[in-house]
Amino acid sequence: MNEEAQPIYGPNPILLVDDDEVLRARLKMALNDRGYQVGDAPNKEEALEIAKTLNPQGAIVDLKMPGEGGLSVVKALKELDPDIQVVILTGYGSIATTKEAIQLGAVDYLTKPADADQILAALKGMRIVSDEPTDELNKAPSLARVEWEHIQRILHDCDGNVSRAARVLGIHRRSLQRKLYKNPPPGPKA
Q1: pLDDT tens string 6-25
Q2: Rounded CA gap, 86 and 125, in Å?
Q3: Distance between CA atoms of 28 and 38, rounded to whole angstroms?
Q4: Cα–Cα distance between 49 and 152 in angstroms, integer?
Q5: pTM (2 decimals)?
Q6: How far apart are CA 20 and CA 8, in angstroms?
Q7: Which part of the chain is CATH 3.40.50.2300?
Q8: Which site from 31, 36, 91, 94 is most exposed, i.e. has the minimal number of CB atoms within 10 Å?
Q9: Third-level CATH fold of 140-181
Q10: pLDDT bracket for residue 3 (50, 70, 90)
């Protein structure tokens, strides 16, 4: 980071980048309650502006956002400060994006829903992933996991409209609601 930039947010600054306004507000409040100062942004451009004055120790970045996605945010943040700890947070986990996020310098990759404690544990390095490929990353996800990720993508593309997503998926709305109510199946451990 720029040597002249002084943190304006106090101790323990964290940058939160997510286009979902409700999620961003809730997570920011949860992190504030745990003593962290949080700067938040809905996109890459605002995130980089905040990062220049915030000088964050860690960042939580959503993978899928309008415009440039989360991976480009990770790359830009690492260019500003190679020591920043970045956690990718997403509802669309996959082996390929996990590997790419790690190669760009993310320390972890968490699938939504992840709570503030899980995110902080990842930022503190309790789940740091090695840059070396592991057998776990090379395993194919379970069929249940692939189905869950596909449903999440369709639901996102339908702007959260369950009825429309059910039509696109060719299943009954109540069946989709039951699937959405369940927690996501375990994905590849990163």
Answers
A1: 333 446 789 999 988 888 88
A2: 10
A3: 6
A4: 31
A5: 0.61
A6: 24
A7: 13-136
A8: 94
A9: Arc Repressor Mutant, subunit A (1.10.10)
A10: very low
